[in-house]
Every structure is written in C-alpha cells, then in structure tokens.
C-alpha cells in the first residue's frame, strides 16, 4: 500500500509539473478576469491546457452547458467561455489536490484510508462546486424577485409625480448607492452607465433584461418599453397592474424561503431531541442497573 500511494503521489506531482511546463504563460491573461470563489487559479492553469487539448467539454456537453448558463446568469454573456474554462479548471484542481494529499498522507502515515478518503473527496467536491454554483444563481434570482416590486412601486410614485421613466430609475439607483452589492441595483447601475455612454433607452433596457435573466425582469422590461412612450395615466396604470402581479410572486418566493428555512431546522431539532432522551434516560438506566 505504501508503494502504491508513493507511486500515485509521484505520478500526480510530476504530471502537474509537466503540464505546467507545457502550458507556460498561455493562460496568465485569465488571472485578472473578475470571478468570485476561485482560489486556485495559478495552480489550475495546467489543467486549463488539459481541458482545451482533450476538449473535455465535448464529452460532457450537458454539464458544460449548465455551468456556462449559470455563469452567464451571474456575470453576463461576455467572457462566459473563459469563465466556464476557469470553473472547470478549479474543479479538476480541487480533485487533483485532494487525491494527491490523500496519497501523501497514506505514504507518510501508513494509513490505507488516506487514499480512499482522498479519492472520495476528489469525486464529491466537483459535484459540490457545481451544486453551489446553481444554488448561488437561484439565490440571486430570488433576491432580484424580492426587490423588484419595491423598485416598481418607487417608479410608479415618481412617474405619477411627473418624473420621466428614465429619471425615475436614475433617482431610484442614486437612493440605493450604498447597496450596490444587491444584484438588481448592480444591473440597474450598469444600465444607467450605458445611458451615459450613448446607448438608447430601449437598447440599455434590453441589455439589462438579458443580464438579469429573470422572467419577472423580462416582464417588467417589456411593459416599460411598450408603454413608456405613451406616458400619462395609461403608463402608470400598466405599471400598477404589473406591480400587483410581482407582489403575488414575491409572496410565493417568501413562502418558499420560509418552508426551506423550517425544513433546515428539522435535523437540529432531531439531534437535540436525541440528546435530551440520552440525558434523561441515562440516569434512569443507571439506577435500574444498581
């Protein structure tokens, strides 16, 4: 077993070194690409070359499509292929790292479980990373959905007071400058920046809808683009009708989150219940034995 673990460790280490020499600085330009959660970019550059050379994406197209789609919803369509490559490289790097660490532990400690544990983590972790990515996308969509009715109400009030739609949106964004981490206001800020850069109202709104990639935002965008030129009471009335629809959907999302939160409490409650049973039952059993 020691011989096997030593051989695997040597092969994995030398393999990474050869791949590193092969790729050189080919992927150094991707180090500065904005993307949260990637901690092993430099370590994973050899695996990026491996993914490109072996065309791993063509062997698992459904997985690659889901990953790329989730990344597009989070960061937009620009550089989506590069971000997908970085994410795949991160997955393989974690697998390589855990497998190498498990084999090295088995080599130095003589424990056979090191290889099994490292191999198990090497298989489980990529699935965990993909699941976490999809979870973040769903959370982002829910956050946008929860905030959109409030934004729409503010726009309705400002437009009813005589503001134009464009000016109303700008005022809403300026009032939330301290909350630009929120995905909805982050995308709205990009939209107002596009207006300043020369984009038309319609084009900037369409880009905003594509970046958010949420059905309710598309509905909001369509309603605004169809009615903003008419203005007046008709436009305000259409926004109020949309606001009622979005509030109902917000209630549905809030209910879903509440149910998820309550379901997460089941396991801790069961554990506490078992602990209480042990604490109460142990003295009684000890007294019976006496």
UniProtKB/TrEMBL annotation:
Pfam families: T2SSF. InterPro entries: T2SS_GspF_dom. It is found in: Cell membrane. Residues 152-282 form the Type II secretion system protein GspF domain. It is a multi-pass membrane protein. The keyword Lipid biosynthesis does not apply. It comes from the Bacteria. The chain crosses the membrane at residues 85-107, 113-130, 265-288. Keywords: Cell membrane, Membrane, Transmembrane, Transmembrane helix. PANTHER family: INTEGRAL MEMBRANE PROTEIN-RELATED, PILUS ASSEMBLE PROTEIN. This is Type II secretion protein F. It comes from Paenibacillus helianthi. The lineage of its organism: Bacteria, Bacillati, Bacillota, Bacilli, Bacillales.
